[in-house]
Amino acid sequence: MVEVHGHQWPPAEDLIAQGFAYLVPGADAASATTDPVEPPAIVTFETFALDYLERLVKPNPETKRKYLERLRVHVFPVLGERPIAEITRREMRLWQEGLVAKKLAAKTIQNIRGETVSPIFEAACLPGEDDEPPLRTYNPLKGLALPQRIRPPREIVEDQREARLVIEAAYEIDPNAADLMLTLLATGMRWGETAGLPVQAVNVERGTVSIMQVLRREHFQWKVIPQPKTKDGYREIPVPAQVMKVIAARCGSRDRDAFVFTAPMGGHWLHDNFYDDRWKKIRTLAEANGLRKRRTMYGLRHSLLTWLASEGVDLTTLRTIAGHKRVSTTFDIYVHSTRRHHPKVKQAISDLMGLEAGPFTSQPHAAEDHRPGR
C-alpha cells in the first residue's frame, strides 16, 4: 500500500478498508471491523500477454498471428499460469535453456525473446491505462545472455568463372527460370522482391528496376504484398544493360500489373517449387561442370553485395542496393571475404616496398660462431 501511494503513508480510510484500523489513531471499534476490500485478481503471464497482443496497433495481422503462435508453442506451456509479477530471472534462464534443449536455432530463440516475450515484460513495467500501478519493476530478460549464434558461412559465387558456370547451367536446365536467377544474381534483390516484380517497376530507359511490392508467405501461402519488408525496401536498383535486355524482352506488351517472371502455369513462381524443381538441378549441373562447393539460392544476393564491396562501391550505395536500414547489416552479414582483392593487395605491397624498382639479390651471411669463449 505504501508503494501504491508513491511511498507515502496510505490514507486512513484505505488502511481501515484493508483491515489495518489499529494503525489509525482514534479509529473506533466499528471501523476496525469493516470488511476489507477484495484484493485485486492475480494477473497471469498468459492473461497479460493476450491483452497486450489485443491492444497492439502497429504490426499487421500476420505478424500478430506469428507472435501468438510463438507464445502458445514456446511460452505459455511454461510461464502461462505464472503471475507475471512473480516471474524471476532464474525462471527465464531455465525457460531459455529449455528452448535450447529442444534444438531451436539461436536465431529462433533470439526472435522469440526480442520480438515477442521481452516487449510483454516491458509493457508490464508501465502503469496501466487508468494509471494502475505497474505489475513489474524490471524486465527479467535483461542481462540474460542469448545462446551463442554460429552463422554457417554463406557460399558465394566468387569470380567470373563461377558465375558463368551457374548461368550456363541455368539456361541449359530452363531458360525461363534462368532469367529470374540471372536477375537475382545481377541485382541482389530478395526472392520475394524478384518473384513479385511487376512490369511497371521496370524502367528500360534508365536501366533500373524499382521495388514496389513483394511476395510474402502468409498463413503458409505466398501473397502479393503492396509494400516492401521495411521503408528502406523502397528503392531503385541499377541493372546491367545485358540483363536489362532480358528483363525488357519479358515485359513486352504485358499489362503493367503483370509479373515480369512467370511460372509455367502463368502465375508467379513459388519459392519451394523453384528451389526444388529448378535450383537444385541448376546447382547439380554447375557442380558437375566444375563449380566448387554447394551454393544456395540466397547466396546469389550475398555474392553481388560482396562483389560490389570488393570493387569499392561506396557504403551508402551498397546499403541502398541491399535495402538495409544500416550499413553494418550489409557488411556484417552479406559481405564475405574473397580472393578478388588479392591482386590489389599484392600491388599495394609492391608499391609500398618498392619491389618494382628491380630485383633483389640475396647476400650470404657468415655463420656466427656460438661456441663458448668466442
Automatic annotation (TrEMBL):
InterPro entries in the record: DNA_brk_join_enz, Integrase-like_cat_sf, Integrase_catalytic, Integrase_recombinase_N, Tyrosine_recombinase_XerCD
Any one GO molecular-function label of the UniProt entry: DNA binding
Key words of the record: DNA recombination, DNA-binding
GO biological process, one term: DNA recombination
Top-level lineage group: Bacteria
Domain Tyr recombinase: 151-347
Signal peptide: none
Family note: Belongs to the 'phage' integrase family.
PANTHER family for this protein: PHAGE INTEGRASE-RELATED (PTHR30349), PROPHAGE INTEGRASE INTD-RELATED (PTHR30349:SF64)
Name under which the protein is recorded: Integrase
Source organism of this protein record: Couchioplanes caeruleus subsp. caeruleus
